[in-house]
Amino acid sequence: MKTQILIAALFFSGLVAAQQKKDSLKVNAIESVNIKKQVFKKQGDRLVYDVAASPVAKGTNTFNLLKQTPMISSIDGKTLKILGKSDAIIYINNKKSNMDAEALIEMLKSTPSEDIQKIEVITVPGSEFQVESKEGVINIVMKKNKSNGYNGTLKMQNEQAYYNNPNAGGSFNFRQGKWSGNSNFRMGSWTERQRYTLSNGDATFRNESYGTNDDPNKNFGGGFNVDYEINKKQSLGLSYNMRYNKSFNSILDMTNWQNGKLSDRTVNHEDAQTRNHSFNLNYEIKTDSIGSKLTSNVSYLWFNRDKVSFNESIPLGLDPSSEMYKKNYSALQQSVPQIINNYAANIDFLKKTTKGATWLMGVSYNYTNTDNDTRQDKLIGDEFVMDTKQTNHFIYKENILGIYLNYERKLTEKLSGKIGARYEMTRSTGDIIGKTGFERNYNNLLPYLNLNYAINSDHNLSYTFSSRIRRPRFWELNPSRTYFTPTNYTQNNPFVLAAKFYNQELNYMYKNAFYFNLSYTMVDDAAASDLLPLQGILTTPQKDENGNYIYDAAGNMLMDKIRFLRYIRTNYGKNREIGLTLGMNKSWFKDIWTTNYSVNLAYNTYTGGVWQDPTSQLGPYESEELEPYIVDVKNYNMSATLNNIIRLSSKKDWFLGVNYYFGSKVAMEGGTIGVRQSFDISVKKIIGDWTIVAEGNDIFNQSFYRVNGVQPNGKYNNITNFSYPRLISIGVTYNFGNQKLKKAREMKSANDAVKSRT
């Protein structure tokens, strides 16, 4: 920047000297020349936030920096949203991060903001990106100062919610000659506390359940990335990431009422462990001097989650030694392991021409095998006996071949465009061994178009169209249950179909500070974004303590009618959404006060229904009456994000953050989500290489879920999940070493799309 100012000063002083000879009345000196970089601007298919030119980027971490980036928000400190709705997929230097979601967030929180050059927000990604549904992309571009040496970050943080949760982590980067690398590690513990209120029924009956869930977790994780520059044109890299989480003695304790009378108490004890290992080998060769290159990746992912639980329903108000108590007491135990193996490879060729055009051609292949050997035993008499209906060995295999092509160029001085398509061929089989199976073969052509018109220096207009699909997550396919009570439970569904998304967007930007975004999304074969509550009556024969059927004196089999509430994820019909976002990113009073404001308005329609449960497994003499679940929702909703950073000292070492989020009621397929809001405040102090941050998130405990759903036939289902969102934290970060060190080359992983589905 100093060089640019010096050149500009010499240039303008030359003009002044020439003018002085012509007119002695003209000003004969220029004291200073100010050139200010654009902090926020539109470039092609993306919006670019120039972090290096922003006062917000001093002395914080990358996650907090992202929360202050226009169009990006986070209300829970764990996830990032684009335009308040779309899930964000993180790329680093145009390559998708090779980490699971929680590890990625911790990495972002431990990465100094000084390492970041710019942040690119792509609301509708092109064909080259491995994304699904209406996911957007956040591409973090690191600084490229190249020098030998090392640097690192150490961080300790203590969070106080309902329980106290400490955590710590660090990162280390090095560069020496042709070798470069980085590594990171994280460890911590947290106990999550949730309070539930559940109610369902109609005019003739009602069920209520009240209780809490305490879920303790201990985890550690980390990884490394090593890159070797074979020569000026070729590079070879290897990356590895892992994460381990242990959650033992998680307890769900619910008290249940029926028609206003105390019924029973359900207690569920759960032990779970999750292990995740991923490897990626990358090779890159530059094919010319103007940026063309060939990149290839080979990846392997191993994911394992073991869960065992014991669930018992204890009658209340009865003598434990009585026959009625023994008849109404029930218990079951579950083992729900899941193992995922994924093998993937891809090759990309980027070709740039001397006329300014860019071609991108690529092919990718993913093979995934998931093994879910679920066992459920129920108590009959004094022994646990296998429940054959809920014991399933489910094996799911999936092959996806993708071919994609993009062409991008500047059409005129003001108009540029990008066009592309992605062809995906999916072959999958599901086998519930000994029971049933299915085979799905489908092909998808996913076109993409972006046109960008720079009207002048103050006005920019762009249009984007994209088509995507959303495949079900692997855990959604595993046909197992998770119980709140014996008759109130979630049921996974192996028969969910992939949903088809068609996204359009019109974006206008004024003076690189104010933006307007209009979007329209169509979804066919839509699956509920949350679980759909299906109510019904199961008619089942009565059995004695030995499992034998019971008959009356006339020889008729005695039957029980049991009401149930079964939450499942399944396809229901169509979804349409129109969204409008108005936003502003601007600094005031010589960068003392920086604002990032946005308002999101939306109109949604959901139409369709569920008339049968594809997961029902009926035994001999059993029958099920399922109430149809009708989806007919039309809804206006809005949300607003107001982020403020105030510099408190002229030395730029004290900062105050004041943020506010508001979300109106939102009607969705499963019911209406209540108003949510969050008021956050933070104070940051920079002392050399040390940064101390004190934060209070959701100070008034207003960011929790309340869902109310009513069907046309009068049946209702209400859920309140209060997760104690108020969080007070103190964090200390220390940066050491050469802070201008260039990081190792980030590498794209061939199995990126699969990681998001684990």
UniProtKB/TrEMBL annotation:
<keyword id="KW-0732">Signal</keyword>
<keyword id="KW-0675">Receptor</keyword>
<feature type="domain" description="Outer membrane protein beta-barrel">
    <location>
        <begin position="286"/>
        <end position="734"/>
    </location>
</feature>
<keyword id="KW-0998">Cell outer membrane</keyword>
<protein>
    <submittedName>
        <fullName>Outer membrane receptor proteins, mostly Fe transport</fullName>
    </submittedName>
</protein>
<dbReference type="InterPro" id="IPR036942">
    <property type="entry name" value="Beta-barrel_TonB_sf"/>
</dbReference>
<dbReference type="Pfam" id="PF14905">
    <property type="entry name" value="OMP_b-brl_3"/>
</dbReference>
<dbReference type="GO" id="GO:0009279">
    <property type="term" value="C:cell outer membrane"/>
</dbReference>
<feature type="signal peptide">
    <location>
        <begin position="1"/>
        <end position="18"/>
    </location>
</feature>
<dbReference type="InterPro" id="IPR041700">
    <property type="entry name" value="OMP_b-brl_3"/>
</dbReference>
<keyword id="KW-0472">Membrane</keyword>
